[in-house]
Amino acid sequence: MSAARKKPTPRTASSIISARLSAHIALEPRADGNILAWFNGYSVGLGKFSTAAVEQAQRLRTGLPLTSFSAARSATVREVDLLVRRLARSGLLEYRFGPPKGGNDQVIIEPQMPEYWPQVAKLAANDRIVLSRFAYMRRRGDEMILESPLAAALFRIRDPKIAATLTSLATPQTLGKLRRQDGFPGAELIGLLLDCGMLFRVAAGSSGLRADEGDDNLVLWDFHDLLFHTHSTEGRQANPLGGLYPYADTMPPPPSVRATWPGQAIDLRHLLPESPNRGSSALNLFRARHSTRDFDDNDPITLAELSQFLDNTARIKAHWENRADLGDGSGPMIAYTVRPYPSGGSSYELELYLTVANCRGLDRGFYHYDADRHALVPISVQPQDIEAQLDSAIFAMDAPNSPQVLITIAARFDRISWKYSSIAYSLVLKNVGVMMQTLYLMAADMGLGGCAIGNNNIDRFARMTGVEFHVEGPVGQFALGRAWIEPE
To answer: Is 0.85 surpassed by the pTM of this model?
Structure first.
């Protein structure tokens, strides 16, 4: 007698990727066919669309499957594709990964860069994959977040089984082995994570995971340094940035002066000279230093003044060499330079890039300062990137006009991380502070105006220079020009 045949287990529908509006975004169709996207009291025009496309766009509140629109289909579908792409470029979309007909979201993909669009990397069953050492999971509100400073999007994990699968990827596994695990989310999600840099392929037999991931420059980065670099700058994260007073409703502002420590204070005031040395040039410079946000467009800085300014603040004055101290005398010879400001370990990893808006004798454009040759080297960039650089500086300074010269301080990260462990990025920021003060004091000495700027867009800088953000990137900015003086 033959055994009874086992009834096949019903297969659940595979999950799909859908585009939908972020929760804080609202679409407003106008009578003339134009569509506006509203968020936080601001609006963005998306263009004019047909009535059919506008009706389809309303489904973006719950989600439109990415497979439902394609340029190869009807005119309406092509319009919807155009609208969705424009929303994506403005960073107004998120992407749902879950069952095709409603149900709970398994994963929500939240872009961190405006150009992000979900792509699924192709995988074979024998491909070995592992979590990136830069990927990490944390709680945000009541959700688990998977993110990485290398990724253009973060993943809000809603399904605990998916979170468990991801933790198993702390060691390399083949896709075929993953498929056999309970709660396997599907190859499509694995492909999304691989494309985004959360996962990466490992060659068979390889054990050097750090060396396998990315290029030699990425090997030099510690996790916390790269995370801080991307999350304290613009370009690769979507968090609010700048002076937004986020805790104004939570707590009062901290006092400007620290509370006095208990104990008998030693009064130093009586030790000051009766007549301070007002002739001290250093004292005068420190007192004259201030931030200038308004520049005189009718009397711009000259190329000769800019040359003197750069010579006195950043030019290489000498070269020297020394052997790396590895304890046994076998260390390689390291080249060093001497410059006008101090630098941790004499690394001098900082480079100056100038966005020139108004300088007499110098064309508008983007330049690198060659500190060895004392020369400005033009870099070909798109005009809109120059405008974006200057507009960002105006916004950051809350200024009436653009700086005449915007100095971007960039770091060659390998120069300092090759030697220092755990404190490399911290040293970069300390060196930036030293350079900022040097620029301020020289501006005051030359009768020019200057202002430090806290914002940097690392993605725009990478686009303008063609250099990957983890190889060389902006860590500070300084506005320079001739101050506008209100007539008496």
So the answer is: yes
Q: Who's near 23: CB < 8 A, 6+ residues apart?
A: none
Q: How far apart are CA 188 and CA 403, in angstroms?
A: 48
Delimit the domains of the chain by residue range: 16-214, 280-481
pLDDT at 208: 64
6 pLDDT above the threshold of 60: no
- Record: fold of 280-481: NADH Oxidase (3.40.109)
Task: Please tell me the least confidently modeled range out of 285-294, 305-314, 380-389, 456-465.
Answer: 285-294
Tokens of 4: 């009874």
